[in-house]
Structure of Glutamine-dependent NAD(+) synthetase:
Amino acid sequence: MEKFGIAVCTLNQFSLDFQSNCERIKSSIRDAIKYGAIIRVGPELEITGYGCEDAFFEVDTVLHAWQVVAEIIKCDFKHIIIDLGMPVLKDSSLYNCRILLLNSKILFIRPKMRLANDGNYRESRWFTPWGNSNNFERNVVWFQLPALITSLTGQQFVPFGSDVVLDLVFNEKNEFLNLTPFRIGFEVCEEMWNPESAHIKLFYEKGCHLVCNSSASYWELRKLNRCLKITQTTTSKSGGVYAYSNSIGCDGGRICFAGRSVILLNGEPITMTMSKDNFLNEVQVAVAYINQSDVTSYRQQSNIKVQSHRATASTLLFDSIAGFKNVNDLKSMNDVIINIKGLEINKKGFELQKSNLSMINTRAEEEILIYVSLWLWDYLRRSSMKGFIVPLSGGIDSCSVAILVYCLCTFLEQQISNLSICKAVEHICGQTQIKNATDICKHMLRCCYLATKYSGKDSLERAKNLTRLIGADFREINFNNVYEEIQTLATISKKGLDKVTLSQQNLQARLRMVLTYYLSEGDRLVLATGNVDEALVGYLTKYDCSSADLNPIGSISKHDLREFVHYFKTQFVEEKHKRFIDDILNAVPSAELTGEEQRDEDDIGITYDELSIFGRVRRGDLGCYGPYGMFCKLWEDISNNLLRSSLPNITSPDILAFKVKRFFTLHSRNRHKQTVLTPALHSETYSPDDNRFDHRQFLFNSQWTWQFGQIDEEVEKIKANQ
């Protein structure tokens, strides 16, 4: 029985970089042809890049997208259906669309029906959804192509709409292959996640064998497995092939697209892009070789009765050489089948690609390792800077940032044979002979320890040991004289100088930021080192070392960072050096602004583990609650032993009430700090990023009079019933 290839592509696109985006798309098409695919599925909005945001308002963006389509048409790729993503302007409305090409002609344009508006998504700001629930708008209409496309294809009008499927009739003598046409349907990203998913209708009502989904799904800790489970459900009930194509990397913003394009057959993944050996590659193509009978047999034996006989559809005839034959016969359309005859399967000279499922199950620590490295690398190479600088304190946060940069260097060493990676590394390291990851790290990463009289010897030793281990450039600077000179010049009142005041602590912190930027020498990106838990309650100085160019850990919890550093110790560090990492893991978190004895958790009044849970209850995977709701939920879960092990210090409603009040008091009092947080990689469901994810006022009544009063009443009720 004849098999044919289906290709999904993972592309690392860059918003508004049309030239490079076009080259990556063409490269992926060539790879798909090389591996014998009859269809190539690309990511959502791959031509422009997904993250153009308000640049989608600019008509230039749409024009340049059509110009890229024209360049692809000029390449005259044969006998492969090319599925491209771009914005399309129709009747003064902008649609998020798929453009389907075959043999340098456009088959149809498929607009997105369900727009993503959750999390970091804001699609309804720029795009119009196609159709509506009342079906007042026809599902398929005619679209007049721009003149620059008509001049190449000879086509003036093409179908535009959601209810279009393709029927492929192959130019083959194989009786099994042409027993029935191979039917293909399409959906776009959010439509898979929606309860009324397009693929349900396509598989069950229209009888599609294959549904293609083009996505721009970003990475978030522990989201990968949920995404895979949802893609598995697409075909586990109805049978069929599902081709899911997703972007990867940083296309210019705070998110990192997750990649992991996958092809599933009857509910089981059979191949996937992306592995630890290639995730830095800008173009990744995975091909699965499908036998149409595998779908038919699964449906027959599972007693799945496809209801395609109930559907009524107009048929457009498309010859693989001549194009559409009966366009003039059709005036209006509700459902359309485009019948494609004469498509040839490439059987000569193509290479069979091995199946890859190496990243089917990924631990949270591995996710941090891979996606933070990828985000940092994309930002570094696309900004044309020479490297990074990290202000090291010897604590877990700053050390984890330095470790992440070193991990990036290990991946660069492994993938140095890739020409584009090799050129980028040469830009950073010069023509120096690169022997290993520490050689790269020596050039890429500079660390500085900025001390005052309050800094501890142990923290300095931890910083030194780590930089020796990873090979980073290290600078130790004691700026105590500068700090004291400024105090002498600027102190207004001598009152309270027997202890370190908050103003003095802030002065130390802000001087560190100034010194770090000076040491960057203008050609290194300054990395911030604050975690999500500290940002939530404002345990940072405004415009200290939390102010930088980028923050790779800005929405990662202290708990997850500890787990990551422990993972690094077990996977990357030789036995004789593991004690250096243990010293970091065992160190008590301290800002060391008043001395070595200072303790972060004492200052905050809440432990880091408690902060992580409170953050996820405020907004995240544990709910979305204000002060009173958080207290009620947490006490219920503690009483039912659901969170008792995670919150061992909270043994009474009074303690919980104090901690919840403390959390919201700090959060509201310091909310203004979150408006100026350094751009951080979005990693968590409870990120406090004010600019994209967590939109809230920044002036609160931090007394929370009504809400805290409700908590007090609830505490009394609980105690009365005990």
